[in-house]
Specification:
3 strands; HTH CENPB-type domain-containing protein
């Protein structure tokens, strides 16, 4: 079995490699993303474009993200020997708020909007 020193030397010899943390991907998602399904999607998309004659102003992209209402306190600088260093934060569990952004193919945007539960 290769040891830590072998791996270190291997990485030094191969500068084009790096250690990365992979994103978790479900088996269904990874097996469904294939040439047949992608081709089918773009054929259907072309059919819809031809049927409705969309222009650039009609094509919008929307993205969303979740934000929590309670933040974790970050690191701070304090005097040496100080025993009680605090940061005020809410004691509640917090609520997940959805933030959405939208823009169209012409570059027009809708200001960010928040969706509260």
């Amino acid at each position: 079995m290769a040891g830590a020193s072998w791996f270190t030397n291997f990485m030094q010899r191969h500068q084009n490699l790096s250690i990365r943390r992979p994103q978790a991907t479900s088996l269904t998602r990874s097996t469904s993303f294939n040439e047949k399904n992608v081709e089918s999607f773009f054929n259907k998309l072309a059919t819809v474009y031809e049927k409705y004659s969309f222009e650039a102003k009609d094509i919008w992209n929307v993205d969303e993200t979740g934000l929590t209402t309670v933040q974790k306190p970050g690191h701070l600088v304090a005097s040496k020997g100080e025993r009680r260093v605090g940061s005020v934060t809410s004691a509640e569990r917090g609520v997940l708020v959805t933030m959405a952004l939208a823009g169209n193919a012409l570059g027009n945007i809708i200001p960010p909007h928040f969706v509260f539960p």
